[in-house]
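To illustrate the input format used throughout this study, we show a single complete record. The first block contains the structure-token representation of the backbone; no residue identities are included at this stage. The design step must infer an amino acid for every position from geometry alone.
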């Protein structure tokens, strides 16, 4: 699992949500909060944040089986954010 810590900004993010918005400015939507992100890199980049790895794995399993949207390529991964 990738961990994102440093990225190209010098601001200090107080929440995982604002950090995610900074890392993925092209995301169509970012929902939830927490350090574990299930990221869908399909036609629309979408991010779900979770407080636990288990919840992130469940969310990824759900979109792996049903698709994350209209043009799903199955390109999903879990990323951990470190504030
Ligand atoms: Zn940032
Ligand atoms: Zn997808």
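Output of the design step:
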């Amino acid at each position: 699992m990738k961990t994102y810590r440093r990225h190209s900004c010098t601001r200090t993010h107080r929440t995982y949500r604002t950090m995610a918005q900074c890392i993925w400015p092209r995301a169509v939507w970012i929902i939830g909060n927490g350090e574990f992100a299930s990221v869908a890199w399909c036609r629309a980049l979408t991010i779900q944040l979770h407080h636990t790895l288990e919840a992130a794995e469940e969310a990824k399993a759900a979109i792996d089986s049903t698709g994350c949207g209209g043009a799903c390529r199955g390109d999903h991964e879990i990323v951990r954010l470190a504030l």
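Structural context for interpreting the output: DSSP finds two helices and five strands in the chain. The mean pLDDT is 95.
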